[in-house]
């Protein structure tokens, strides 16, 4: 048993299939979960820091700090429910989000990361919400799926480049060149008046 398989067994959720059903690389799954967990904790800490803006009568920063702490808490609840096991509803929320496609989580994280930056754009909100936004981007990339192999891409490109059509319509395939697509130029005379 390799080291990555041992880590995979340790990181496995209760009731999760031992064989993954999707084609997302293992490192991307752990990157999303790790960045979500660590980023949520940092966002909570920086949200408390942003809330101190009320000392300078910056109400927008107070609201942004509260929002950022809430966004960090939601991220931790979804990504690492073991951190909030004292709350009985956390496991239900985490299981609900685990059954949804990756783009649900990506969209949720991106949506909850933006309001804090819009309300109070300082370094703490940009960094704290940026980590949650980065988690959303990783889940968005996971929803795109696996990239095709080089052979598959070459065969599809070759099939698209050899499409047959009428001879008077320019070919827009990959193997067409600009000279092959050029239309004949008609010459009607000098554009300048020679009497001037």
From TrEMBL:
The entry's keywords: Calcium, Calcium channel, Calcium transport, Cell projection, Cytoplasmic vesicle, Endocytosis, Endosome, Ion channel, Ion transport, Membrane, Transmembrane, Transmembrane helix, Transport
CC per GO annotation: endosome; presynaptic membrane; synaptic vesicle membrane
Domain of life: Eukaryota
One GO term of the biological process aspect: endocytosis
Biased composition (Polar residues): 161-180
Subcellular location field: Cytoplasmic vesicle, Secretory vesicle, Synaptic vesicle membrane; Endosome; Presynaptic cell membrane
Record SMART domains: Cg6151-P
Membrane-crossing residue ranges in chain numbering: 35-57, 69-90, 102-119, 125-144
GO terms for MF: calcium channel activity
Region listing for Disordered, in residue ranges: 156-196
InterPro entries recorded: TVP18/Ca-channel_flower
Claim: Transport is one of the keywords in the record: yes
Membrane topology: Multi-pass membrane protein
Family: Belongs to the calcium channel flower family.
PANTHER family per record: CALCIUM CHANNEL FLOWER HOMOLOG
Quaternary structure, from the entry: Homomultimer. Associates with the dally/ magu complex.
The protein, known as: Calcium channel flower
Organism: Thrips palmi (Melon thrips)
């Amino acid at each position: 048993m390799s080291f990555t398989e041992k880590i995979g067994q340790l990181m496995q959720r209760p009731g999760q299939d031992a064989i993954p059903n999707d084609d997302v690389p293992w490192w991307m799954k752990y990157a999303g979960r790790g960045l979500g967990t660590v980023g949520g904790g940092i966002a909570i800490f920086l949200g408390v820091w942003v809330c101190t803006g009320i000392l300078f009568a910056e109400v927008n920063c107070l609201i942004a700090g509260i929002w950022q702490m809430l966004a960090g808490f939601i991220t931790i609840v979804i990504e690492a429910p073991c951190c909030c096991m004292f709350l009985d509803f956390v496991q239900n929320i985490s299981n609900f989000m685990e059954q949804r496609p990756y783009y649900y989580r990506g969209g949720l994280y991106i949506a909850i990361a933006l309001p804090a930056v819009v309300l109070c754009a300082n370094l703490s909100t940009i960094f704290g919400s940026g980590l949650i936004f980065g988690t959303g981007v990783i889940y968005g990339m996971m929803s795109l799926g696996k990239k095709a192999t080089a052979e598959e891409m070459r065969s599809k490109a070759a099939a698209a480049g050899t499409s047959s059509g009428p001879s008077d319509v320019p070919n827009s395939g990959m193997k067409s060149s600009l000279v092959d697509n050029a239309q004949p130029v008609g010459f009607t005379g000098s554009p300048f008046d020679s009497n001037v």
